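Propose amino acids for all 157 sites.
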């Protein structure tokens, strides 16, 4: 029964990725390998479903290759964070508080303050509003919402 559920999960995963007649791929790799290969494929950019089908027909992605892809992705996230941490050092203005409010809390009354970076420690950039003292954090995946560079650097009093 468990293997049947895994097979159904693998078929569903392949269909979600645009594969027609995914049942035929079950003869090439175990359902768990198909699911792992789908996760590997999800981390790629600029590739089509043909690569996914080809890898499954070839037996799927090896565990080492999946681990390497995960490590590369994590390293890329960390490098991106470090880049933002350099652009927005402690004491710098991340963005106007009202701008973040529009994205996250659109029904709140807009604040006139700026969000000042108080800490940049992977995986988040912590900020505090200089007017209302609201504290928030940008996770490594949310940093793209920030402008390309800090608007200003505040000097400590």
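Proposal:
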């Amino acid at each position: 029964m468990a293997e049947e559920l895994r097979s159904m999960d693998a078929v569903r995963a392949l269909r979600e990725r645009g594969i027609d007649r995914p049942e035929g791929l079950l003869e090439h790799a175990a359902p768990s390998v198909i699911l792992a290969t789908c996760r590997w494929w999800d981390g790629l950019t600029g590739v089509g479903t043909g690569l996914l089908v080809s890898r499954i027909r070839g037996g799927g992605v090896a565990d080492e290759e999946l681990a390497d892809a995960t490590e590369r992705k994590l390293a890329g996230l960390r490098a991106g964070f470090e880049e933002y941490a350099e652009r927005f050092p402690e004491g710098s203005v991340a963005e106007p508080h009202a701008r973040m409010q529009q994205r996250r809390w659109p029904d709140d009354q807009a604040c006139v303050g700026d969000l000042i970076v108080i800490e940049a420690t992977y995986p988040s950039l912590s900020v505090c509003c200089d007017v209302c003292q609201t504290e928030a954090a940008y996770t490594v995946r949310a940093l793209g919402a920030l402008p390309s560079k800090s608007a200003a650097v505040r000097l400590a009093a």
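The helical segments are 2-16, 31-42, 49-57, 63-87, 97-104. The chain has a mean pLDDT of 87.
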